[in-house]
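Here is a typical protein record:
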Amino acid sequence: RRNEAALRSVIPGFRAESLLGLSIDPFLENPTRDHADFARQELLPIRRQIEVSDRVFTIAVTPILDSQGQWMGNCLEWWDLTDQRRAEEQVASLISSAVAGDLHHRVDSRNFEGFMGGLVDGINRLMDAVVDPIRQTAGLVESLSRGCLTETMAAGFEGEFGELERSVNSCVENLRAMVHDVQVVACHLHEASANIAQGNTDLSRRTEAQAASLEETASTMEELTATVRQNAENARRADELALAAKVSADKGGCVVGDAVGAMSEINASSKRIEDIIGVIDEIAFQTNLLALNAAVEAARAGEQGRGFAVVANEVRNLAQRSAGAAKEIKALIKDSVAKVEEGTRLVDASGQTLSEIFNSVQHVSDLIAEIANASGEQTRGIEQINRAIAQLDHMTQQNAALVEEAAAAAESLDEQTLQLNEMMGFFEVGGLEKSMPTPTRVGAGAATRGRRQSSGGSSGPRHAPPIRRSTSLEATFSDDGWEEF
Protein backbone atom coordinates (compact mmCIF):
# COMPACT_ATOMS: atom_id res chain seq x y z
CA ARG A 1 0.00 0.00 0.00
CA ARG A 2 2.94 2.38 0.71
CA ASN A 3 4.01 1.98 -2.95
CA GLU A 4 0.52 2.17 -4.44
CA ALA A 5 0.82 5.74 -5.69
CA ALA A 6 4.16 5.08 -7.33
CA LEU A 7 2.83 1.93 -9.04
CA ARG A 8 -0.33 3.70 -10.23
CA SER A 9 1.86 6.19 -12.10
CA VAL A 10 3.10 3.30 -14.23
CA ILE A 11 0.01 1.02 -14.16
CA PRO A 12 -3.11 3.17 -14.24
CA GLY A 13 -5.90 1.92 -12.02
CA PHE A 14 -3.56 -0.14 -9.87
CA ARG A 15 -4.90 -0.89 -6.42
CA ALA A 16 -3.13 -2.89 -3.74
CA GLU A 17 -6.26 -4.77 -2.63
CA SER A 18 -6.78 -6.07 -6.17
CA LEU A 19 -3.21 -7.25 -6.60
CA LEU A 20 -4.11 -10.93 -6.23
CA GLY A 21 -4.96 -12.42 -9.58
CA LEU A 22 -3.31 -9.73 -11.64
CA SER A 23 -0.73 -10.59 -14.28
CA ILE A 24 2.85 -9.79 -13.43
CA ASP A 25 3.71 -9.00 -17.02
CA PRO A 26 3.34 -5.21 -16.61
CA PHE A 27 6.13 -5.33 -14.06
CA LEU A 28 8.54 -7.39 -16.19
CA GLU A 29 11.02 -5.91 -18.61
CA ASN A 30 10.80 -8.93 -21.03
CA PRO A 31 7.73 -10.99 -20.15
CA THR A 32 8.24 -13.57 -22.93
CA ARG A 33 11.74 -14.41 -21.88
CA ASP A 34 10.88 -14.36 -18.19
CA HIS A 35 7.87 -16.72 -18.69
CA ALA A 36 10.09 -19.12 -20.65
CA ASP A 37 12.61 -19.09 -17.80
CA PHE A 38 9.88 -19.57 -15.19
CA ALA A 39 8.71 -22.71 -17.06
CA ARG A 40 12.09 -24.37 -16.96
CA GLN A 41 12.39 -26.24 -13.68
CA GLU A 42 16.16 -26.58 -13.96
CA LEU A 43 16.46 -22.77 -13.73
CA LEU A 44 14.26 -22.47 -10.66
CA PRO A 45 14.35 -20.78 -8.26
CA ILE A 46 14.83 -17.50 -10.16
CA ARG A 47 15.25 -13.97 -8.81
CA ARG A 48 14.62 -10.85 -10.84
CA GLN A 49 15.08 -7.20 -9.87
CA ILE A 50 12.57 -4.81 -11.36
CA GLU A 51 12.21 -1.04 -11.20
CA VAL A 52 8.84 0.63 -11.29
CA SER A 53 8.94 4.39 -11.30
CA ASP A 54 11.32 5.26 -8.43
CA ARG A 55 10.68 2.01 -6.62
CA VAL A 56 12.89 -1.10 -6.69
CA PHE A 57 11.52 -4.62 -6.14
CA THR A 58 12.92 -8.13 -6.12
CA ILE A 59 10.73 -11.02 -7.32
CA ALA A 60 11.49 -14.66 -6.56
CA VAL A 61 9.95 -17.59 -8.48
CA THR A 62 10.12 -20.86 -6.52
CA PRO A 63 8.79 -24.29 -7.77
CA ILE A 64 6.00 -26.05 -5.82
CA LEU A 65 6.45 -29.85 -5.64
CA ASP A 66 4.06 -32.53 -4.43
CA SER A 67 4.93 -35.28 -2.02
CA GLN A 68 6.39 -37.35 -4.86
CA GLY A 69 8.58 -34.46 -5.96
CA GLN A 70 6.49 -33.71 -9.01
CA TRP A 71 6.23 -30.10 -10.16
CA MET A 72 2.80 -28.65 -9.49
CA GLY A 73 3.42 -24.96 -10.23
CA ASN A 74 5.38 -21.89 -9.23
CA CYS A 75 5.19 -19.57 -6.23
CA LEU A 76 6.04 -15.88 -6.86
CA GLU A 77 7.19 -13.59 -4.06
CA TRP A 78 8.35 -9.99 -4.20
CA TRP A 79 10.07 -7.60 -1.83
CA ASP A 80 10.34 -3.85 -1.79
CA LEU A 81 14.10 -2.97 -1.92
CA THR A 82 13.62 0.75 -2.41
CA ASP A 83 14.64 1.71 1.14
CA GLN A 84 17.57 -0.72 1.05
CA ARG A 85 18.74 0.68 -2.30
CA ARG A 86 18.47 4.27 -1.05
CA ALA A 87 20.26 3.33 2.15
CA GLU A 88 23.01 1.64 0.14
CA GLU A 89 23.39 4.71 -2.06
CA GLN A 90 23.53 7.08 0.91
CA VAL A 91 25.97 4.81 2.75
CA ALA A 92 28.14 4.59 -0.39
CA SER A 93 28.07 8.40 -0.64
CA LEU A 94 28.88 8.61 3.06
CA ILE A 95 31.81 6.23 2.61
CA SER A 96 33.09 8.16 -0.42
CA SER A 97 32.93 11.43 1.53
CA ALA A 98 34.68 9.83 4.50
CA VAL A 99 37.38 8.45 2.23
CA ALA A 100 37.79 11.96 0.79
CA GLY A 101 38.18 13.33 4.33
CA ASP A 102 34.67 14.86 4.63
CA LEU A 103 33.20 13.51 7.85
CA HIS A 104 30.19 15.85 8.04
CA HIS A 105 27.80 13.74 5.93
CA ARG A 106 25.16 11.49 7.56
CA VAL A 107 22.46 9.17 6.28
CA ASP A 108 18.99 10.78 6.44
CA SER A 109 17.13 8.35 8.73
CA ARG A 110 13.77 10.11 8.37
CA ASN A 111 12.99 8.22 5.14
CA PHE A 112 13.65 4.80 6.62
CA GLU A 113 11.62 2.60 8.90
CA GLY A 114 12.03 -0.72 10.58
CA PHE A 115 15.22 -2.59 10.08
CA MET A 116 16.64 -0.10 7.61
CA GLY A 117 15.83 2.78 9.94
CA GLY A 118 17.68 1.06 12.79
CA LEU A 119 20.58 0.22 10.50
CA VAL A 120 20.86 3.80 9.28
CA ASP A 121 20.70 5.13 12.84
CA GLY A 122 23.45 2.68 13.81
CA ILE A 123 25.64 3.84 10.91
CA ASN A 124 25.11 7.48 11.92
CA ARG A 125 25.98 6.70 15.53
CA LEU A 126 29.06 4.82 14.32
CA MET A 127 30.15 7.87 12.31
CA ASP A 128 29.56 10.14 15.31
CA ALA A 129 31.58 7.81 17.53
CA VAL A 130 34.44 7.79 15.02
CA VAL A 131 34.29 11.46 14.05
CA ASP A 132 34.09 12.92 17.57
CA PRO A 133 37.58 11.79 18.73
CA ILE A 134 38.98 12.63 15.29
CA ARG A 135 37.54 16.13 15.47
CA GLN A 136 38.79 16.60 19.03
CA THR A 137 42.21 15.35 17.95
CA ALA A 138 42.18 17.69 14.93
CA GLY A 139 41.15 20.62 17.13
CA LEU A 140 43.89 19.75 19.59
CA VAL A 141 46.46 19.54 16.79
CA GLU A 142 45.22 22.89 15.44
CA SER A 143 45.74 24.35 18.94
CA LEU A 144 49.22 22.85 18.98
CA SER A 145 49.91 24.51 15.63
CA ARG A 146 49.02 27.83 17.28
CA GLY A 147 51.39 27.07 20.14
CA CYS A 148 48.66 26.44 22.69
CA LEU A 149 49.61 23.48 24.89
CA THR A 150 46.85 24.01 27.48
CA GLU A 151 44.03 22.12 25.74
CA THR A 152 43.39 18.39 26.02
CA MET A 153 40.85 15.89 24.71
CA ALA A 154 37.65 15.54 26.69
CA ALA A 155 37.35 12.39 28.74
CA GLY A 156 34.63 9.78 28.28
CA PHE A 157 35.88 7.74 25.35
CA GLU A 158 36.12 3.99 25.65
CA GLY A 159 38.09 1.23 24.03
CA GLU A 160 40.49 2.22 21.27
CA PHE A 161 39.18 5.77 21.36
CA GLY A 162 39.86 5.91 25.09
CA GLU A 163 43.38 4.70 24.39
CA LEU A 164 43.68 7.39 21.71
CA GLU A 165 42.44 10.00 24.20
CA ARG A 166 44.93 8.93 26.85
CA SER A 167 47.79 8.77 24.35
CA VAL A 168 47.04 12.20 22.85
CA ASN A 169 46.60 13.81 26.28
CA SER A 170 49.79 12.16 27.51
CA CYS A 171 51.59 13.42 24.39
CA VAL A 172 50.34 16.97 25.02
CA GLU A 173 51.34 16.79 28.69
CA ASN A 174 54.79 15.49 27.79
CA LEU A 175 55.15 18.13 25.07
CA ARG A 176 54.08 20.86 27.50
CA ALA A 177 56.58 19.67 30.11
CA MET A 178 59.29 19.34 27.46
CA VAL A 179 58.63 22.84 26.08
CA HIS A 180 58.71 24.23 29.62
CA ASP A 181 61.99 22.45 30.30
CA VAL A 182 63.39 23.73 27.00
CA GLN A 183 62.27 27.26 27.88
CA VAL A 184 63.94 27.02 31.30
CA VAL A 185 67.11 25.52 29.81
CA ALA A 186 67.10 28.16 27.06
CA CYS A 187 66.87 30.94 29.66
CA HIS A 188 69.70 29.43 31.70
CA LEU A 189 71.67 28.88 28.50
CA HIS A 190 71.08 32.52 27.59
CA GLU A 191 72.37 33.64 30.98
CA ALA A 192 75.39 31.32 30.71
CA SER A 193 76.16 32.42 27.15
CA ALA A 194 75.80 36.07 28.21
CA ASN A 195 78.25 35.47 31.06
CA ILE A 196 80.60 33.65 28.67
CA ALA A 197 80.34 36.53 26.20
CA GLN A 198 81.06 39.05 28.97
CA GLY A 199 83.99 36.95 30.24
CA ASN A 200 85.36 36.49 26.73
CA THR A 201 85.10 40.23 26.11
CA ASP A 202 86.98 40.99 29.33
CA LEU A 203 89.49 38.27 28.52
CA SER A 204 89.90 39.71 25.03
CA ARG A 205 90.68 43.15 26.47
CA ARG A 206 93.15 41.70 28.98
CA THR A 207 94.74 39.55 26.30
CA GLU A 208 95.12 42.56 24.02
CA ALA A 209 96.71 44.54 26.88
CA GLN A 210 98.99 41.59 27.63
CA ALA A 211 99.91 41.35 23.96
CA ALA A 212 100.80 45.06 23.92
CA SER A 213 102.90 44.66 27.09
CA LEU A 214 104.64 41.61 25.62
CA GLU A 215 105.32 43.54 22.44
CA GLU A 216 106.95 46.35 24.45
CA THR A 217 108.85 43.77 26.52
CA ALA A 218 110.03 42.06 23.34
CA SER A 219 111.27 45.40 21.97
CA THR A 220 113.08 46.14 25.25
CA MET A 221 114.60 42.65 25.28
CA GLU A 222 115.84 43.14 21.73
CA GLU A 223 117.61 46.34 22.81
CA LEU A 224 118.95 44.61 25.93
CA THR A 225 120.12 41.70 23.79
CA ALA A 226 122.02 44.08 21.52
CA THR A 227 123.60 45.79 24.56
CA VAL A 228 124.57 42.49 26.20
CA ARG A 229 125.94 41.25 22.89
CA GLN A 230 128.10 44.40 22.65
CA ASN A 231 129.24 43.92 26.25
CA ALA A 232 130.13 40.33 25.46
CA GLU A 233 132.16 41.50 22.46
CA ASN A 234 133.93 44.10 24.62
CA ALA A 235 134.59 41.47 27.29
CA ARG A 236 136.04 39.19 24.62
CA ARG A 237 138.34 41.95 23.38
CA ALA A 238 139.32 42.82 26.98
CA ASP A 239 140.11 39.15 27.53
CA GLU A 240 142.35 39.20 24.47
CA LEU A 241 144.08 42.38 25.73
CA ALA A 242 144.46 40.85 29.19
CA LEU A 243 146.04 37.78 27.63
CA ALA A 244 148.42 40.04 25.69
CA ALA A 245 149.24 41.99 28.90
CA LYS A 246 149.81 38.70 30.67
CA VAL A 247 152.26 37.63 27.98
CA SER A 248 154.03 41.01 28.16
CA ALA A 249 154.19 40.83 31.97
CA ASP A 250 155.56 37.34 31.68
CA LYS A 251 158.25 38.59 29.30
CA GLY A 252 158.97 41.56 31.60
CA GLY A 253 159.37 39.17 34.51
CA CYS A 254 161.87 37.16 32.51
CA VAL A 255 163.80 40.34 31.59
CA VAL A 256 163.85 41.51 35.24
CA GLY A 257 165.06 38.08 36.27
CA ASP A 258 167.85 38.30 33.73
CA ALA A 259 168.68 41.83 34.98
CA VAL A 260 168.75 40.61 38.58
CA GLY A 261 171.13 37.85 37.53
CA ALA A 262 173.34 40.31 35.63
CA MET A 263 173.40 42.70 38.60
CA SER A 264 174.37 39.82 40.86
CA GLU A 265 177.22 38.96 38.53
CA ILE A 266 178.28 42.64 38.39
CA ASN A 267 178.21 42.77 42.20
CA ALA A 268 180.36 39.66 42.36
CA SER A 269 182.78 41.11 39.78
CA SER A 270 182.95 44.40 41.73
CA LYS A 271 183.86 42.52 44.89
CA ARG A 272 186.57 40.66 43.03
CA ILE A 273 187.89 43.97 41.62
CA GLU A 274 187.88 45.37 45.16
CA ASP A 275 189.93 42.43 46.31
CA ILE A 276 192.34 42.91 43.41
CA ILE A 277 192.64 46.62 44.23
CA GLY A 278 193.40 45.64 47.84
CA VAL A 279 196.18 43.39 46.60
CA ILE A 280 197.50 46.21 44.42
CA ASP A 281 197.35 48.60 47.39
CA GLU A 282 199.22 46.05 49.48
CA ILE A 283 201.82 45.66 46.75
CA ALA A 284 202.22 49.47 46.54
CA PHE A 285 202.63 49.60 50.32
CA GLN A 286 205.23 46.88 50.21
CA THR A 287 206.94 48.59 47.27
CA ASN A 288 206.97 51.86 49.20
CA LEU A 289 208.58 50.09 52.16
CA LEU A 290 211.12 48.48 49.89
CA ALA A 291 211.85 51.84 48.24
CA LEU A 292 212.23 53.41 51.66
CA ASN A 293 214.64 50.68 52.73
CA ALA A 294 216.51 51.07 49.43
CA ALA A 295 216.82 54.82 50.02
CA VAL A 296 218.13 54.22 53.52
CA GLU A 297 220.67 51.75 52.21
CA ALA A 298 221.64 54.16 49.39
CA ALA A 299 222.21 56.88 51.94
CA ARG A 300 224.45 54.61 53.89
CA ALA A 301 226.39 53.80 50.74
CA GLY A 302 227.14 57.42 50.18
CA GLU A 303 228.24 58.56 46.81
CA GLN A 304 228.01 55.12 45.33
CA GLY A 305 224.41 54.79 46.32
CA ARG A 306 223.25 58.18 45.06
CA GLY A 307 221.92 56.86 41.74
CA PHE A 308 220.29 54.00 43.46
CA ALA A 309 218.77 56.45 45.89
CA VAL A 310 217.30 58.40 42.96
CA VAL A 311 215.79 55.22 41.54
CA ALA A 312 214.55 54.21 44.93
CA ASN A 313 213.03 57.65 45.35
CA GLU A 314 211.28 57.35 41.97
CA VAL A 315 210.04 53.89 42.86
CA ARG A 316 208.80 55.27 46.14
CA ASN A 317 207.01 58.06 44.31
CA LEU A 318 205.44 55.54 41.94
CA ALA A 319 204.49 53.33 44.84
CA GLN A 320 202.88 56.29 46.58
CA ARG A 321 201.09 57.29 43.41
CA SER A 322 199.98 53.66 42.91
CA ALA A 323 198.79 53.54 46.49
CA GLY A 324 196.88 56.81 46.01
CA ALA A 325 195.39 55.56 42.76
CA ALA A 326 194.54 52.26 44.41
CA LYS A 327 192.83 54.13 47.25
CA GLU A 328 190.83 56.21 44.79
CA ILE A 329 189.96 53.15 42.73
CA LYS A 330 189.06 51.32 45.89
CA ALA A 331 186.81 54.18 46.96
CA LEU A 332 185.25 54.24 43.50
CA ILE A 333 184.89 50.47 43.56
CA LYS A 334 183.28 50.64 46.99
CA ASP A 335 180.94 53.34 45.79
CA SER A 336 180.22 51.31 42.64
CA VAL A 337 179.65 48.16 44.71
CA ALA A 338 177.31 50.11 46.97
CA LYS A 339 175.47 51.41 43.93
CA VAL A 340 175.44 47.95 42.36
CA GLU A 341 174.06 46.55 45.59
CA GLU A 342 171.45 49.31 45.63
CA GLY A 343 170.73 48.58 41.98
CA THR A 344 170.51 44.89 42.76
CA ARG A 345 168.10 45.65 45.60
CA LEU A 346 166.05 47.85 43.31
CA VAL A 347 166.12 45.22 40.59
CA ASP A 348 165.05 42.61 43.15
CA ALA A 349 162.27 44.95 44.29
CA SER A 350 161.34 45.55 40.65
CA GLY A 351 161.29 41.82 40.07
CA GLN A 352 159.09 41.35 43.12
CA THR A 353 156.83 44.15 41.94
CA LEU A 354 156.74 42.73 38.43
CA SER A 355 155.93 39.33 39.93
CA GLU A 356 153.09 40.90 41.86
CA ILE A 357 152.02 42.75 38.71
CA PHE A 358 152.19 39.47 36.82
CA ASN A 359 150.08 37.76 39.45
CA SER A 360 147.64 40.68 39.37
CA VAL A 361 147.57 40.59 35.58
CA GLN A 362 147.01 36.84 35.77
CA HIS A 363 144.16 37.36 38.22
CA VAL A 364 142.72 40.19 36.10
CA SER A 365 143.04 37.99 33.02
CA ASP A 366 141.21 35.17 34.80
CA LEU A 367 138.50 37.59 35.95
CA ILE A 368 138.14 39.04 32.47
CA ALA A 369 137.99 35.51 31.04
CA GLU A 370 135.25 34.65 33.54
CA ILE A 371 133.48 37.90 32.70
CA ALA A 372 133.77 37.07 29.00
CA ASN A 373 132.40 33.56 29.60
CA ALA A 374 129.62 34.95 31.80
CA SER A 375 128.84 37.59 29.19
CA GLY A 376 128.65 34.88 26.54
CA GLU A 377 126.34 32.79 28.73
CA GLN A 378 124.32 35.91 29.52
CA THR A 379 124.08 36.70 25.82
CA ARG A 380 122.88 33.20 25.00
CA GLY A 381 120.45 33.25 27.93
CA ILE A 382 119.03 36.63 26.94
CA GLU A 383 118.75 35.47 23.33
CA GLN A 384 116.79 32.43 24.53
CA ILE A 385 114.63 34.71 26.68
CA ASN A 386 114.16 36.98 23.70
CA ARG A 387 113.11 34.03 21.52
CA ALA A 388 110.77 32.80 24.27
CA ILE A 389 109.24 36.27 24.63
CA ALA A 390 108.87 36.52 20.86
CA GLN A 391 107.20 33.11 20.79
CA LEU A 392 105.04 34.09 23.76
CA ASP A 393 104.13 37.32 21.99
CA HIS A 394 103.20 35.36 18.87
CA MET A 395 101.09 32.92 20.88
CA THR A 396 99.50 35.79 22.79
CA GLN A 397 98.55 37.40 19.50
CA GLN A 398 97.02 34.11 18.39
CA ASN A 399 95.29 33.77 21.75
CA ALA A 400 93.93 37.29 21.38
CA ALA A 401 92.54 36.41 17.95
CA LEU A 402 91.13 33.14 19.30
CA VAL A 403 89.56 34.90 22.27
CA GLU A 404 88.02 37.44 19.92
CA GLU A 405 86.58 34.63 17.82
CA ALA A 406 85.36 32.90 20.99
CA ALA A 407 83.72 36.15 22.07
CA ALA A 408 82.02 36.43 18.69
CA ALA A 409 80.91 32.79 18.94
CA ALA A 410 79.59 33.39 22.46
CA GLU A 411 77.66 36.43 21.25
CA SER A 412 76.27 34.39 18.37
CA LEU A 413 75.35 31.66 20.86
CA ASP A 414 73.63 34.29 22.98
CA GLU A 415 71.70 35.47 19.91
CA GLN A 416 70.73 31.88 19.13
CA THR A 417 69.52 31.35 22.70
CA LEU A 418 67.47 34.55 22.44
CA GLN A 419 65.97 33.25 19.21
CA LEU A 420 65.33 29.92 20.93
CA ASN A 421 63.60 31.78 23.77
CA GLU A 422 61.52 33.69 21.24
CA MET A 423 60.60 30.46 19.46
CA MET A 424 59.80 28.73 22.75
CA GLY A 425 57.74 31.78 23.71
CA PHE A 426 55.47 30.79 20.81
CA PHE A 427 54.10 28.00 23.01
CA GLU A 428 51.63 28.52 25.84
CA VAL A 429 52.21 26.07 28.68
CA GLY A 430 49.68 27.39 31.18
CA GLY A 431 50.68 27.58 34.84
CA LEU A 432 54.22 26.36 34.10
CA GLU A 433 55.06 29.80 32.68
CA LYS A 434 55.14 31.27 36.18
CA SER A 435 58.15 29.19 37.15
CA MET A 436 60.15 30.08 34.04
CA PRO A 437 62.89 32.76 34.35
CA THR A 438 62.67 35.78 32.10
CA PRO A 439 65.45 35.97 29.48
CA THR A 440 67.33 39.26 29.27
CA ARG A 441 69.89 40.51 26.84
CA VAL A 442 73.45 40.99 27.97
CA GLY A 443 74.70 44.47 28.83
CA ALA A 444 76.72 46.76 26.68
CA GLY A 445 79.95 45.44 28.18
CA ALA A 446 79.53 42.12 26.41
CA ALA A 447 77.91 43.48 23.29
CA THR A 448 81.04 44.35 21.37
CA ARG A 449 79.21 43.83 18.11
CA GLY A 450 75.77 44.77 16.87
CA ARG A 451 72.94 42.51 17.90
CA ARG A 452 70.03 41.56 15.71
CA GLN A 453 66.70 42.67 17.20
CA SER A 454 63.69 40.43 16.85
CA SER A 455 60.72 41.82 14.97
CA GLY A 456 57.54 42.68 16.85
CA GLY A 457 54.59 40.30 16.87
CA SER A 458 51.15 40.89 15.36
CA SER A 459 47.66 40.39 16.69
CA GLY A 460 46.93 37.61 14.23
CA PRO A 461 47.60 33.86 14.68
CA ARG A 462 51.12 33.16 15.78
CA HIS A 463 53.35 30.96 13.68
CA ALA A 464 56.61 29.42 14.76
CA PRO A 465 59.51 31.46 13.34
CA PRO A 466 61.93 29.54 11.14
CA ILE A 467 65.17 28.51 12.74
CA ARG A 468 68.08 30.52 11.37
CA ARG A 469 71.42 28.85 11.43
CA SER A 470 74.21 31.11 12.67
CA THR A 471 77.15 31.33 10.33
CA SER A 472 79.44 32.70 13.04
CA LEU A 473 79.24 29.41 14.90
CA GLU A 474 80.58 27.64 11.83
CA ALA A 475 83.93 29.49 11.95
CA THR A 476 86.86 27.15 11.54
CA PHE A 477 89.84 27.87 13.79
CA SER A 478 93.12 26.96 12.20
CA ASP A 479 95.79 25.57 14.52
CA ASP A 480 98.62 25.78 11.98
CA GLY A 481 101.85 26.69 13.73
CA TRP A 482 100.48 26.18 17.22
CA GLU A 483 102.41 24.19 19.78
CA GLU A 484 102.36 23.45 23.49
CA PHE A 485 103.78 26.23 25.65
